[in-house]
Specification:
Layout lengths: L9 E5 L19 H10 L4 E3 L38 H14 L4 H23 L3 H9 L2 H14 L16 H10 L1 H27 L3 E6 L8 H5 L4 E9 L9 E8 L1 H6 L3 H10 L5 E4 L3 H4 L1 E5 L9 E3 L4 E2 H6 L4 H8 L5 H8 L3 H8 E3 L7 E3 L6 H5 L5 H12 L3 E2 L6 E4 L14 H16 L1 H19 L3 E4 L9 H7 L4 E4 L23 E4 L8 H5 L6 H7 L12 H11 L6 E5 H5 L34 H6 L1 H16 L6
Parallel strand pairs: 1-2, 1-17, 2-3, 3-6, 6-14, 15-16, 16-17
Antiparallel strand pairs: 4-5, 4-7, 7-8, 9-13, 10-11, 12-13
Helix pairs in contact: 1-7, 3-7, 5-6, 5-7, 6-7, 14-15
């Protein structure tokens, strides 16, 4: 869907569908809850609602762990609106009372219950549904649905285990999909029916919000779960030998390993990117704009060998490696380079890592280097993080062994003539065993190699992102956080893709004292916000121990010392400053707007957080609005405060780009 002309600064609110709740929803936010929420949004004079992904995640609560790039999550279906639900009214009412009493989101229990009650409704209507022309037409119009329904059916038949653990149909072809549809006719049709119902409800909600003049912004994760219908049925598009993640940074020494397979872009290109184009076409049914999650992955993805656990042994892909010819021409011999890639050790050197455990651990993990009797290398079976961490050693020994394993300048690649630097190459003990002149020469070559990547990444992203931007008329926004290559702003600007500015991180990190950028310095083609689903809320930020309140307060051009506690009045001053940004869009999480209300601010700040990256379970993905959307519509004082902020922003002239 087209966003439409933009003649004023745009404002909006970000909220996960699962966080909404209404008089009719059961246990979790539902597609139809968007309608009353959009009425509140309209009253606030917002332009847009930003959502998290709504794809089917099965039993997983994280919306970024989808088992389909196309299918919607049935948990967001409003059961009472489904034809045939009246036959199970008592059971539905009991379910609603049970989850209402719970007062929080128990994703697994809710998801399991909803699929169960939907199955009962379906079974009761099966004879008519298998002849239903509307359902048959929907299946024909959605070619992805056959593979997805077959996958979902087999997954249920196999106790929800991964397709890698199935005894049959591990690597299906089109004929296999048809066999599954014939063999399990009722089960696959149930999956298709749930998707048809979910799409009708989501489409109805979007149509109503559009009538109110409110747009919807979706979220399209760049990656897809290994245990997904897409990887199962379209194996050729994915590399099963690598996992995507993020390189180490100030927040994580070992980087991140997301566990998702990387793309085989060469194969996707041979098919004219048909899978990605179909994915965007599906999204365009519901969204006026969309956010590309981890857009940096279209420039270069951090690719980690499948046998590793952390992200530390990864490398960027694509990437120009150092070659044997270059290194040999600089005076390095083959033996030295192999030593830098897979170090060998004396007992004394190992003792620096392993201390008093050295003699005991030595025969278990190491073998003598060929041709020597006093130099040792890791045994082949222990040359991975999985192997080391899977050993029966105590944690302190495992940690020490990881440091031995990580002690290198180049990571193994399987190609003896290409050399990719290890992330922390400059700080490893093996580097300092080289003569000083060789250390300096190696540093020079690696720095030159780093500087040579920008052109490759710019060309790669321009090619891939051009496909995305030209495929639909949706407005394209990017999540461009992380270690950002110099070419990123240029590519995004050339393709009219909006970048992201999260205020707390929008700083000149290379300047003295790392000052915040002024709001007027934000690029026009950007989305500005105070926080996101992976950070604390504004009130939560204020409670973080390492947060410099006074520095932030002065950046916001507010007088005096920063308050120790944020009141609604303080929040209003902060949001007034944020809304002065030069960004075309200002879309804040609903929690930060709720901070304008004394009543809604009674919720503990830590309970407003949606996700803590790098952690699993707990309170992640369970945030629930402290009021229903029905009650929100009655909170006219909050709506009025928000409208004042929005209206001032709308009246600002947009002539400056």
């Amino acid at each position: 869907m087209r966003y439409g002309d933009i003649s004023t600064f745009q404002s909006g609110v970000a909220v996960p569908i699962f966080s909404l709740h209404s008089k009719t929803s059961i246990g979790i936010g539902e597609f139809l809850d968007l309608i009353p929420f959009a009425r509140w949004v309209q009253f606030c004079d917002f332009n847009i609602i930003q959502l998290l992904p709504v794809n089917d995640t099965g039993a997983e609560a994280s919306p970024y762990s989808a088992r389909s790039a196309f299918a919607l999550n049935p948990v967001f279906i409003n059961v009472q609106s489904v034809q045939g639900s009246s036959e199970f009214e008592d059971e539905i009412n009991k379910g609603k009372a049970r989850f209402d009493e719970l007062g929080k989101i128990d994703y697994y229990q809710i998801s399991t219950w909803k699929r169960s009650i939907l199955r009962k409704i379906f079974d009761n209507r099966f004879e008519s549904l298998k002849k239903d022309k509307l359902l048959a037409k929907w299946i024909d119009q959605n070619p992805w649905s056959k593979a997805y329904c077959a996958y979902a059916t087999l997954k249920a038949k196999n106790g929800e285990s991964s397709w890698k653990d199935w005894k049959t149909f591990k690597n299906p072809g089109p004929k296999d999909i048809e066999k599954i549809w014939t063999k399990y006719e009722k089960d696959v049709l149930f999956q298709a029916w749930m998707q048809c119902v979910a799409e009708m409800q989501f489409s109805a909600a979007v149509a109503e919000t559009s009538k109110l003049g409110v747009r919807i912004k979706g979220d399209i994760p760049i990656l897809i779960n290994e245990d997904s219908a897409d990887v199962w049925a379209n194996r050729k598009y994915f590399s099963m030998e690598d996992r995507a993640g993020a390189p180490p940074d100030m927040f994580s020494y070992g980087g991140q390993n997301w566990g998702f397979p990387t793309y085989r872009w060469d194969v996707l290109e041979q098919d004219n990117y048909s899978w990605w184009k179909s994915r965007l076409a599906q999204a365009s049914k519901f969204y006026h704009a969309y956010r590309i999650d981890h857009v940096l992955g279209f420039f270069r993805i951090w690719s980690i060998p499948e046998q590793e656990v952390t992200g530390i042994m990864g490398r960027f892909n694509p990437c120009i490696p150092l070659t044997w010819d270059v290194l040999h021409g600089a005076g390095f011999c083959r033996e030295s380079l192999e030593y830098l890639r897979n170090p060998n050790y004396s007992v004394d050197q190992l003792r620096e890592f392993l201390g008093g455990d050295t003699e005991r651990v030595l025969p278990k993990f190491f073998e003598t280097l060929y041709g020597t009797f006093d130099r040792f290398v890791l045994k082949p079976e222990f040359r991975s993080e999985k192997a080391i961490l899977g050993s029966d050693e105590p944690q302190n020994v495992k940690d020490a062994m990881l440091k031995v394993y990580w002690n290198r300048v180049f990571i193994p690649t399987g190609d003896e003539n290409t050399f990719y630097p290890y992330w922390y190459w400059y700080d490893q003990k093996v580097l300092f065993t080289l003569p000083q002149n060789e250390q300096e020469k190696l540093k020079e070559l690696i720095h030159q190699n780093e500087a040579s990547q920008n052109g490759l990444w710019e060309a790669n992203a321009t090619k891939l992102l051009s496909v995305l931007t030209q495929e639909t008329d949706m407005l394209v926004c990017a999540e461009d956080l992380g270690a950002v290559p110099p070419c990123v702003p240029t590519v995004l600007r050339n393709l009219n893709i909006l970048s992201l500015r999260i205020e707390r991180w929008a700083r000149d990190w290379n300047a003295p004292y790392q000052p915040y950028y002024d709001m007027e310095a934000y690029p026009r083609l950007s989305v500005c916000t105070t926080s996101c689903h992976d950070t604390s809320s504004l009130r939560g930020l204020w409670k973080e121990q390492d947060f410099d309140k006074d520095f932030y307060w002065s950046h916001a051009h507010l007088s005096g010392a920063a308050p120790q506690e944020l009141t609604p009045s303080h929040v209003k001053s902060i949001l007034t400053h944020v809304f002065s940004s030069n960004s075309m869009f200002c879309i804040l999480p609903v929690q930060d707007f709720f901070a304008l209300s004394a009543k809604l601010s009674e919720v503990p700040a830590e309970e407003e957080r949606i996700n803590v990256p790098g952690t699993v379970g707990g309170a992640n993905w369970t945030y629930r609005l402290p009021v229903s959307v029905d009650e929100l519509l009655e909170n006219t004082s909050l709506s009025s405060e928000i409208r004042k902020l929005v209206d001032v922003r709308k009246r600002r002239p947009m002539w400056k780009i």
